């Protein structure tokens, strides 16, 4: 099957899931949006759930790419925190439909079929973050903590604003809180003696 048709079906799936949600979405609606035949759909994907899983991995790859791009060129501790938080906020706002899919629409049961691929993608992100973070921890520029705790302190507070924005509960652009989120993350992640030098 041509890659173009597969990409068209993924884009159509994203649009339909964003408009009506996963449960209400139909293969017929996705096919109509992509201008694809029944045969073309089922040649590319065995089911709506399979398309949803493939789309999840594609969106996750885009998000992880945006985060890792923020670490090039390699920043110091404060710059890295600043860039990673801004990269997260920018991606959510500028890729709102994808962000809604990743953080609001996707379902854990889809990940049964894509769990290994998801784990591999998450591992690549974690490795990229650790390549930047580990030397800074070793030098005492970042506080020592587990990678999971680091991410929760870095992105967790921003996610609260992003989820409210994505769900429509709050129309305020979450990037308007970037400076405060960065200042809070710096206090949580840098040793006190480094914060006072900022």
Highest-level CATH class of the largest domain: Mainly Alpha
The averaged pLDDT comes out at 93
Name the overall outline: elongated
**Strand count, sense and closure of the main sheet?**
none
Low-pLDDT sequence parts:
none
Summed up, the helix count is 10
Q: Which architecture of the largest domain per CATH?
A: Orthogonal Bundle
Indicate the proportion of strand residues. Answer: under 5%
Tell me how many strands there are: 0
Distance N terminus to C terminus?
54 Å
Question: What string gives the helices and strands in order?
Answer: HHHHHHHHHH
3D architecture notes:
By secondary structure, the protein is mainly alpha-helical. It folds into two domains: 1-46, Arc Repressor Mutant, subunit A, CATH 1.10.10; 52-189, Tetracycline Repressor, domain 2 (Orthogonal Bundle), CATH 1.10.357. The chain has helices at residues 3-24, 27-34, 38-44, 48-69, 77-94, 96-105, 111-139, 147-167, 178-189, 192-195. Helix 4 (48-69) packs across helix 6 (96-105), helix 4 packs parallel to helix 7 (111-139) and helix 5 packs across helix 6 (96-105). The longest helix is centred in the middle third of the chain and has 29 residues, at 111-139. The chain is elongated. The chain starts with a helix and ends with a helix.
């Amino acid at each position: 099957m041509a890659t173009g048709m597969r990409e068209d079906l993924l884009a159509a799936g994203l649009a339909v899931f964003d408009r009506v949600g996963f449960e209400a979405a139909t293969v017929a609606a996705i096919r109509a949006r992509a201008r694809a035949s029944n045969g073309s759909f089922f040649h590319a994907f065995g089911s709506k759930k399979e398309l949803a899983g493939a789309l999840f991995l594609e969106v996750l790859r885009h998000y992880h790419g945006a985060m890792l791009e923020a670490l090039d060129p390699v920043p110091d501790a404060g710059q890295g925190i600043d860039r990673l938080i801004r990269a997260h906020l920018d991606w959510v706002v500028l890729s709102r439909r994808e962000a809604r899919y990743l953080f609001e629409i996707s379902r854990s049961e889809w990940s049964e079929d894509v769990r290994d691929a998801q784990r591999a993608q998450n591992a690549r992100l974690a490795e990229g973050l650790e390549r930047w973070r580990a030397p800074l921890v070793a030098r005492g520029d970042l506080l020592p903590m587990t990678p999971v705790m680091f991410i929760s302190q870095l992105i967790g507070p921003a996610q609260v604003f992003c989820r409210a924005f994505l769900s429509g509960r709050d129309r305020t652009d979450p990037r308007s809180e970037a400076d405060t989120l960065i200042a809070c993350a710096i206090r949580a992640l840098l040793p006190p003696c480094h914060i006072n030098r900022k």
